[in-house]
Structures are given as structure tokens and as C-alpha cells.
Amino acid sequence: MLSSNTALTIAKYAFGASVTATTLVIGGLWYFQRSLIYPSGFPEGSRSVVPKPIEVGCPYEDVTLTCSDGIKIKAYAIMARKKPLMLSELRGLTPTERKERAQNEMEAWAQEMGDEKAIEYSKSRPTIVIFHANAGNMGHRVPLARHFNVDYKYRTRLTSSHRYGLSEGKPSELGLQIDIQTAMKYVQVHPILGQTKIVLYGQSLGGAACFYAASKHSDTVAGVIVENTMLSLKTLVPLVMPQIPKFLLPILLTEHWDAHKTVPLIPSTTPILFLVGKRDTLVKAEQMVALRELRGSGRTRWREFDGEHNDTCLQPGYWEEIGKWLREEIEDDGMEVVDQNDGGKEN
């Protein structure tokens, strides 16, 4: 049996170890938080290998934008086409044959852009601006862009943020906000992309970017689609790192992404589609519920899927729901509104 002195010594060491561990976690959060929040190098190779839209059959324009801070960021612009290349036409081809077919498609698209009817068709279609999540690069979202571009004939814009993919700079909330403003300005003044309605789409942190963009460009944003997005980093960190005292978060966090402040700035007439993964253990559904409640009686639609944080977009019915919302809320300019007291179900 332990003596009282031995027990006290063990307790002191245990307490000291606990304090040390907590201090290390707190110090690590403050010092490394941008690396934790913006893992631009994950998965491996993300800073050097960026998949191109043509790899999934979508001809594109490779764009370099200069931000207000002098940083150069990369982007893809994909125009709407009446007869896009179908994936079935690429299946069964050897790598060499796929490369040749891709080159032929790029040449055909270049010719189309010299045809007035093709240009007018592209101008007549809405534009989707995709803001990617905090890991990977814009090339990893090319399959998402293909859905919008081929399935719904939407012009599509992908941007690689500060120090993501082949872009310059270091990622931070301020840097990404500058990227957002740069991307929106590019779309708005583009002779084709800026001619019709602009819809924003974002997953996770990309959803917070959408809310920020919509709050700053409410006169040009026609709709917003967000998936598994947090209320703010201040509300998310305690769920991921519960050992950090909540009262220290305002001091420790240099990155905020306060969607709870930007959502109320978005006009109630702007439709928002909330896509929720019910099994998401990182950004739990409660975060999205809180965001939806901030909309009050605004135009809102809520859809749940049996997905986790990173695979919600792969769940059955996901793209069908997006297509339905685009037709009813953007193209038909519908007025369907969610009853805020029904837990997210439509009337």
C-alpha cells in the first residue's frame, strides 16, 4: 500500500504532467495554428501536382491572378458548352489515347470560343465559383467542377488560394479573404463569366469563404451552396481540442472565420442550400443548424445525407438535390423557403 507521501508525490507529478501537456497543446495551437488550419501540403504532392479539368474532359483556361498584396494565385475557368465531352467517351482509352483526345478537345473548344453562337450560349448560363476546403488544392475539386459544368451546363471557376497548389504566398484568413476578393472581381469583369447569375459553392472552410464572399458581394451573388461548414473556428476548436480552456481561445486564435457574423449580412432574398453529412464528426451538424437559424425567414433549403465530413458529396442523391435547387432557385428564381421550426424540412 502506498504511503501518504508517495501518493502525494505521484499526484504532484501527475498534475505537473497534465499542466505541461496542456501548456504544450496551447502553445502549439498558437504557434502552429495556421499549419493546422491550412494543411496545403496534404495530401502529399498537393503543392506541386494540380490535376487539370481536361483530365476529366473539360476544356479550360489556365488563369494567373495578381492579388492586391502582390501575390500571384492560380485559377481555372471552364466555359459552358452545349455538347460537352462525356466521360463515357474517355472510358477504355489508353493513357496516350486519353491525352490525344484531351488535346483534340482543347483545340475544338478554342474554335468554339471563336463562334458567336457558342459564346452567347456560354454567356446565357449561370456561373459557379468554387471555394475549396482547407486541404488539398483546386485540382482535387475538378470532379466537382465537372458535375456543375457538364451535368448542369454551368460555367465554372476554381481558385487556388495563397500557398495552395501552384499559388504563391502563405495561407491565412486575411490572405484567403484577399484571394476571395480577387476571384470575385475577376468573375465580375470577365466578358463571359460575369454576364449572368453567380452562384458560390464551398465545402467545410470553403463554405465559410462563400459566406464571406456573399456578404461582400450581395449585389452580384445569386445563391450560395455550402456543405459541412462551421459556425466559426472559435466554436469548432473546443470540439476538436477539448483540453484547451475556452476562455483562452479569443487570445490564442489568430484565425476566426466567423460565419455567424457574415451570414446575417447576406440578404434574405439570396437562396442558400445547406448540405449536411449526418455522420460528420469533425464539423457536426449542430454547427450547420446554428448557421441555418441565423437565416431567420430567409430563402433556405436544408438537405441531409448519410455522409461523413469528406464523403458527403459522394452520397446518393447529393447531385440530384443540387440540380433541383439550381433549377428552382437560380434558373426559375423560385421562392421556396424552409420552415425554421421544422428541423430543416421543407414545407
UniProtKB/TrEMBL annotation:
Transmembrane spans: 12-32
GO CC aspect terms: membrane
One annotated GO molecular function: palmitoyl-(protein) hydrolase activity
UniProt keyword terms in alphabetical order: Membrane, Transmembrane, Transmembrane helix
Keyword Transmembrane helix part of the UniProt annotation: yes
InterPro entries for the chain: AB_hydrolase_1, AB_hydrolase_fold
Domain of life (superkingdom): Eukaryota
Ranges for domain AB hydrolase-1: 126-243
Pfam family, one: Abhydrolase_1
Record's protein name: BEM46 family protein
Species in which this protein is naturally found: Cryptococcus deuterogattii Ram5
